Every structure is written in structure tokens, then in C-alpha cells.
Amino acid sequence: MTQDQTTGPDAEAETQTPWRPSRTVAVVLAGGTGTRLGLGIPKQLLKIAGKPIIEHTLAVFEAAPEIDEIIVLMATGHVEDARQIVEKAGLRKVTKVIEGGDTRNATTRIALDAVGPEDCNILFHDAVRPLLSGRIVRECVNALWSYDAVDVAIPSADTIIQVDDNDCITDIPVRSRLRRGQTPQAFRSPTIRAAYRIAEDDPDFAATDDCGVVLRYLPGTPIKVIDGSDENIKVTHPVDVHLADKLFQLAAAQAPRLTDHRSYSEELTGRTIVVFGGSYGIGHELTELARRYGAQVFPFSRSSTGTHVERAEDVAAALTTAFEATGRIDHVVVTAGILEKGALAEMDEETMDRLLQVNFVGPVTIARQALPYLQQTKGQLLLYTSSSYTRGRARYALYSATKAALVNLTQALADEWADVGVRVNCINPERTATPMRTRAFGEEPEHTLLAAEAVAQSSLDVLISDLTGQVIDVRRAPGDGPTPSVPAQAGSGRVETPAGATSAN
């Protein structure tokens, strides 16, 4: 007998047929009704970051190379809604959209019938966990080569207590061994089918999730736990909607960058970009960079072309000029804005009106005028906000208010224009090195400022991406100065100007 030959009970285990699944199926469980959110529609149809929650979730599996097929189990009465979302989004991996059951376990049984009898990998995932990462999907599928069942969980940051019927503590388990369960839960199909077959004979059957069914009815089956993520939240309560929306903003903090200049040229050659506020600063750098990549760029500003963004006739004339020259408008960028510093009670009406007109009425006017052109090309409107949009600052009251208004405008228009294929995003850069900033604040250490060229590069990344409804931060990497060649993260841009000065000038 050679050393690698084995006898006895272990020989049978080592010679078992290896697991060879026919395919990997993601089952998206979308049976919730949204009652805890107080909605008139299922919560999975609620829009976050410009898309229904279920569309975000399905997009993760659509993009995952490990997934071959997607089956959707939808709430009663809303199957057609889900089918329309799938069709509109072009989700080719979705093969079935069917009605779920009255309970989670009933829905799983329907899903198992829909998957069919072949041996395969099955991942069950809550439709209202839209921030699932590709890493989690990959690790779940990989774990099924070694385990029959896989769960996803994260450590508990809170102490967990056990109480009795009178809400008195009976035990405090050791937190280091506790986990908070998430989804997906992944199984080899024979395992989950066997667990449910046994469960059918139990009159007291009850389980809150599918791993619980395996744990109870196939107790000898190891269930592997892989690390989930704090972002993989379940949208259940009203606060979860706000958290998920913010997490999507953070998730979009790095717009996809192309690999080389040739790729940028391939993307931008033949496109027409109109820049309001293109005479210097971020607008000027964006104009020059896009032209180098082959785009036809038309910059307009108060100083160079006499264009006032708050005047509908000026905006219309600018857009007409670009369209008549090229026959199309793919992107409209609005960097124009002014900063008026001072206590609100001390501002004169002329100053207040000018700030509101340029910073808010201007972008609104441009948006209204640009929509017909952008509809033709399925293009994008790109706005710019400031870090002060999250919290107003003393002596910057109206400026901060207008920048917050632009964020809300971005999100609202992204939702409003989704049906016509027009995207809207907002850039939010940190302090940026521009002549305008120098005039306002004097000379500042270079290493504390972001380069205008970096903001322009990130702006192009956003323009050629599929993002919509996002506030995209542009930040310096630690230790970086205002170097144009720094691969900037996608972000938003703040334009700060001295009192009375226009960033478009």
C-alpha cells in the first residue's frame, strides 16, 4: 500500500464525488410589504439614489461573474412592477419574476420549485439589502466548494442581553461569540431541499431564515460563516432609508477611472459639453481637459461671453450655439457660482438677490433649458456643491443654503428624469487651488489644497459613468498637494469666491 492510499471509514469520505453544481442561482426575496415604513407600496420599490431598492440589489448579482441566473420572488400584486424594473434596467440574468409566499419559509419553498431539480448553488438574499458587495457574493459562492451551507454575519458592536417575559435580564452572552446575521445565505441545493423535506413533517416548524432550517433539521451539517459588512443593511425602518441613501453617496465616492488616455478619448470624442462658468478655475480646467480628449466643449461665462446663468434668454442662446455647431449636447456642466460673506442681517437686498439668483436660480434655469437637449443624447447634468451643504456656517448662511439646495435639486431631478434617461450628479470637492480662491483667502500652503485639474479629471470620470443622483466627494489622498496628475477620487466641487465675485468670470 502506498502512502497516499487510505483504508477504513476515511477512505469513503475522501473518495466522495466532488461537488459539481450545474449553475449558481441568486434568489432575491422581495415579499415585504413596507408596513413598518408606513408606505403604500412594498419597500423594495421605494427609490434610493435614483433607483428602486430592488434594482440596486439585482444589479449587484447581474454584475457578479459568479452568478449565472437570478430569480425574483415578489410581493403579491406587484409582480408586474418588478418585471418592468427588470426590463427597463436590462437585467439579462433575471429569468423569472414570480409571486412569493405568505411567509419567508413558504417563499423559499416556491423558490426551490422555480430553481428546478438540478444540483446547483443557491443564494437567498433580501431584496431590501441593496448595498451588498461583490466581495460577499464571491466569498459565499467560493465557500460552497467546501461547505453545504454558508451564512453571512458581522460581529455585534453592542452587548446582547437575554430577557424573560417580564423584560428582566436572565443572561448576558459573551459578545465575542455573537454575530448579527445578514444575507445572502448560500446552499448546495440538495442540502436546503433535504432540510425543508424534513421540516414538512414537523407540526411545530418555525424558522426566521433558511440557515435556521438547516441548523434545526440537519444538525450535523456545518454552516460556514463569512464576514458581512456594516454597509449591508436591511431597509426596514424609516431611518434605514436615510442611512441607505447616504451610504450610496459614500459608495459612489470613487467614480470608475479609465485605464489610459486612449480610453478617455474613445469615450469623449464626438461628445458635446457645455460648461457654464468655464472661463477659469474648475470650469476652465474641465474645458481644456475634455478638449484634449476629443470632446467639443463650449464654455460660457459672464466675463468671456456675457452669459448670465440666471437669465433664461442667455442660457437658451448658449445652448442653441452649441447645438447648432455640433447637432447634439451630451453634457451640461454648471460651475458658475458666487460666495457672499457676511452676517445675514447686515446683507443688503441686492447682494442677497444676486447670490440667490446666480447660485440657485441659475442652475434651475439651466436644468430646465438643457433637458430637451439631454433627452436626445441620454446625457447628464453636472452641478457643483460645497462641503457647507451638510451644515450651514456663520457668515455663509445664504451660500450654504444654496449649496444644500443644489444637492436636493440633484437628487430630485435624478429621480424625475430617470424615465427619460437623463442623469444628474453633483460634485463636492474640498478646498481647491484656483485664482478665485487665492483672491478670496490669500496665499495658502499648497499641500492643503486640491488641484483644480484633479477636480476636472474627477468631473470627467463622473460624466462618462452611469452614476445618477449622487453627491460625489473629491478629496486629496493623504500627503498629496495640488498635483494635476493625482488620480482624484470622484467628488463634488466647491467654488469659493470673494464677495461679489462670480466664479464664472
How would you characterize this protein structure?
By secondary structure, the chain is α/β, with parallel strands linked by helices. The chain folds into 2 domains: 17-235, Spore Coat Polysaccharide Biosynthesis Protein SpsA, Chain A; 261-474, 3-Layer(aba) Sandwich (Rossmann fold). It is 38% helix and 18% strand. The chain has 16 helices and 19 strands. The strands form 5 sheets. It has a 7-stranded mixed beta sheet, with helices on both faces. A 6-stranded parallel beta sheet has the order 13-12-14-15-16-19, with helices on both faces. It has a two-stranded antiparallel ribbon with strand order 2-3. α10 (281-292) packs across α16, α12 (312-326) runs parallel beside α13 (349-377) and α13 (349-377) runs parallel beside α14 (397-416). The chain is elongated. The N and C termini lie far apart (88 Å). 45% of the residues are buried. The model is unreliable at 1-15 and 481-505 (pLDDT under 50).
Architecture blueprint of SSEs:
Blueprint: H1 9-14, E1 24-30, E2 47-48, E3 51-52, H2 53-63, E4 69-74, H3 79-89, E5 94-99, H4 104-115, E6 121-126, H5 134-143, E7 149-155, E8 162-163, E9 169-171, E10 179-188, H6 189-199, H7 210-217, E11 223-227, H8 238-251, H9 261-268, E12 272-276, H10 281-292, E13 296-300, H11 302-305, H12 312-326, E14 331-334, H13 349-377, E15 380-384, H14 397-416, E16 423-429, E17 432-433, H15 435-441, E18 450-451, H16 452-463, E19 471-474
Parallel strand pairs: 1-4, 1-6, 4-5, 7-11, 12-13, 12-14, 14-15, 15-16, 16-19, 17-18
Antiparallel strand pairs: 2-3, 6-10, 7-10, 8-9
